[in-house]
């Protein structure tokens, strides 16, 4: 166990905030509104912004007015650390750090949800009945319209590579992406992309040529793009970009045509959850048609439920992008992502390619 | 009807019981086999994954190094979505990397250095199957030993084992059903002759004693033959009884007819002297008839197999002495010398005194009647024996047994009833004694002996 926690903590130091905009102390609290029925409460720890979470919680409380709900928004790092320190604190863990969530479930920390909705949930979006993917968030590029005017459309990774290779000089320091060495999300995408195509390393080399800025979060990239410090952002979390760039017409969100990584937020119920019944009800709500409908209409996270289509759903995205979508597989290969030696190997290679 | 009363059920029970036990054994065996098969199939995954990992292990920067292929981990999980664990351990037992601190395998390798060691482990509350691959680097200079440990949870194995077992179960159940049906038919067929026998017996005319005629299997043929033997004996008994009744009626009718004729003859006379003469004759005849009736009665009683009188200890000498005293007078008048040879000590037997006295009386009477001049009653001990011997003409050996039949009389004898020896035989049987007829002393005359059961010195 010692060894394990040492590994974990070493790792945790490197997990970066995916949702930086969120402060560590952000909470939402919904007291029980009706007095009848057994009084119970529900504690949710999530790495999901309050504006995105609020409609979900409100919808849930409309169905369960007797339940006091407390939501605490944490970074993926804090969420993981808090869970390991106090596994009986939260009823539901909701995080976009897929490998870490998977690792918790794999080690048997998650309870099983046996409900009809869980039975029907698509196989690719869950692992056993313990880990449920509830969102569908593409990884996108954000390109300033000025670039498109000057150098033409950027629709794919190939376009980006060509742009960087041809105009490295013009773009010096104006491209931004995740730092895989210090951001867990960036590292996860790097490992997934390197598995998808060897040409990823050409892209890394080109990014290096352009002296790309490396940051830790999507939020930082978005701020820089809005401020005009950066003209091209690579590998941003689509859901946050969509929400943030509603009033930024000069910035175009590009869902790459050749391949688009898709990350998913994973929810699990810790085995030692203090209110397992309420937790099951909430998770059941998240994967119900109602909950997913709220997700599609009132957030930018992307609903997975197969019965839903239209804006804000995976169904629509699949219709538009089809084969190009590459959801990160929910399986044991996620464990490889967390391997110490593998990380060292990948980062060494990344540095070698990136450094001109 | 009680459960044990049905031969059918008893057979069924005794055949089904071993079948059930056998079936349970087969089921257990099938379960063990299914698990072994599932383990063998899934152990291949452990083997392949550990090999894929081991192949990646290199020596770099003075330490073990490898780039974990994600596919190796995917290999360990099937549709059952097993939990997957792996670790790389160096020669000193230090964990180089891995997602779990899996325990080592205490067993030594089986000679082959690349062999995998499989076993079940309970690790942090999870039931896992672990494979440990012990190998070493095969580089130019570095031959560092290391261990790859992989493990996964058992869902896939259990599902496969259950599936295999269910398939077997269906087959075994079908076989059991077939066997049971076959068993029922076989028992029914085997018991069919019994039913036929029952029908044959039930369908008979209750008055007939004819033997059963039907072909049966050996075991039942024995029963049929036994029944037929019994029927034959019953036929003989009935024949005997019919003849006895006929003879008895005949015997009684003759003196009664004589009486009737004598009375009729006397009534035609007017002389009272004649009447008295007739009455005296009639008295003698009726006395004889009464004695005959008495003999018939005792014979009937003795012949009844239900007649089991209570036997008491008796001294044969005392009985013989009493009989001698009773018969000495009449014998003396006929000029017969009646004597006795007794033992010095008492001879105890179990019997009924008046029956034994009757037997001795009958034998003395017979001896006197058939020409004996010297009649001796002999008591012998060891075994207890009562014999009456005479010096009369005797009976040829070939006809001795005939003398035991009721109403059998020898030659032109008109006086006796022919019941004497038959009654003695009946008394002997009642006492469990053997009746022996032989020639008398010096091969002359007749010796009739009753040998009682008792100590043989």
TrEMBL record, chain A:
Keyword Signal found: yes
Keywords: Signal
GO CC, alphabetical: outer membrane-bounded periplasmic space
Keyword Transcription regulation tagged: no
Name of this protein: Iron(III) transport system substrate-binding protein
Protein species of origin: Halomonas daqiaonensis
From TrEMBL, chain B:
EC number(s) on file: 2.7.13.3
Record localization: Membrane
InterPro entries: 2CSK_N (IPR013727), HAMP_dom (IPR003660), HATPase_C_sf (IPR036890), HATPase_dom (IPR003594), His_kinase_dom (IPR005467), HisK_dim/P_dom (IPR003661), HisK_dim/P_sf (IPR036097), Sig_transdc_His_kin-like_C (IPR004358)
One term of GO molecular function: phosphorelay sensor kinase activity
Primary localization class, coarse: membrane
Domain Histidine kinase: 247-456
Residue ranges of the TM segments: 12-32, 169-191
Keyword Transmembrane among record annotations: yes
GO cellular component: plasma membrane
Protein name: histidine kinase
Organism expressing this protein natively: Halomonas daqiaonensis
Source lineage: Bacteria, Pseudomonadati, Pseudomonadota, Gammaproteobacteria, Oceanospirillales
